[in-house]
Amino acid sequence: MFKLKLNLICGGALMLMASCGSKNAAPELTDSGLDPNKFVAEVDGKSTGLYVLKNAAGMEVCITNYGGRIVSISVPDRDGKFIDVTLGLDSVQAYFPENNQTDFGAAIGRYANRIDHGRLPLGGDTIQLPTNNFGHTLHGGPTGWQYKVYDVNEANDSTLVLSITSPDGDNNFPGEVTAQVTYTLTADNALDIDYEAVTDKPTVINMTNHTYFNLNGDPSKAITDNVLVINADGYTPVDSTYMTTGEILPVKDTPMDFTAAKEVGADIRNFDFEQIKNGNGFDHNWVLNAAGDISQEVVKLTAPATGVTLSVYTNEPGIQFYSGNFLDGTVTGKKGAVYNQHAGLCLETQHYPDSPNKPQWPSVVLLPGEKYSSRCIFKFGIEK
């Protein structure tokens, strides 16, 4: 299905750890300050590690194969200082569900976002999935792929290829699915994420990345001052359980309108608007005007304080903008940072939430003999 190209690995991680060569040597930290030794573990008989991508411009991306999670992204600000613009944790154990039930940085599968009450209509039958969020199935269910160890197929300084085989009946989803996620760091400071999957039975697939971004480079400073543009004239409203209603409504003359640049915090507490109240802020899917044209910029995020910009490109029809509403200070992240409400935001490229129950929306069904393909590009820049 996919080629397996195994590179030499030291202790489950790229040969970055000085301790692999000398027991007495101090650990060699990544540019973002991570200790790779803290990401070496064994989970369900599989090894975990930390993998580092770096380009000639100095941009660094650190990823663990536990959940395919992006742990850090270091980019230059307008003064040339490199800052980490993502939320994450300092060790692989911190990502274990018994310690923190978070989706920080994860490659989400099988189905990103929510499925209404876990009811999955497929082939004339309705399959009941386990529920884990306000009565719905969220991000693949209670034991989604964010809590699995991905196999490492290829690892070098520009590319990391991960794969996972999800058995038939995994969280009650039908079909054995083999999925691959390829992370590529380009010379022009873009992280290109490519997803592929095949199945042996009809099933549904909707993968995404769940990185929390904070372009201030300081999670103690909320993302409410970041400036956002979403090239979308419509969005999918939700009820009080965050479930899509099946409608597509216009953003014009509402707080959901980001067609012109505005601060994330401008309307984030406008609870007189029902959708802000229902989402406890922004936690909605926008229907992208690009309609899958990956050459078009669909989102631009800018931090005035640092000048760092993030442009998003995708072949997906939608994007979930989540403003970190449920971060509540109970999670302590990298370097002891406390993640309070709005410490980061997510931009999850996707098919629309609950598409299996909304036949009027683009299909997420994958059949044997077909290949699922999805792509997202996070391109970083500087605004002087």
Automatic annotation (TrEMBL):
Reactions the enzyme catalyzes: alpha-D-glucose = beta-D-glucose
Keywords, in A-Z order: Calcium, Carbohydrate metabolism, Isomerase, Signal
GO MF: isomerase activity
Pathway named in the protein's UniProt entry: Carbohydrate metabolism; hexose metabolism
PANTHER family: ALDOSE-1-EPIMERASE, GALACTOSE MUTAROTASE
Subunit structure: Monomer.
Protein name: Aldose 1-epimerase
Record organism: Heminiphilus faecis
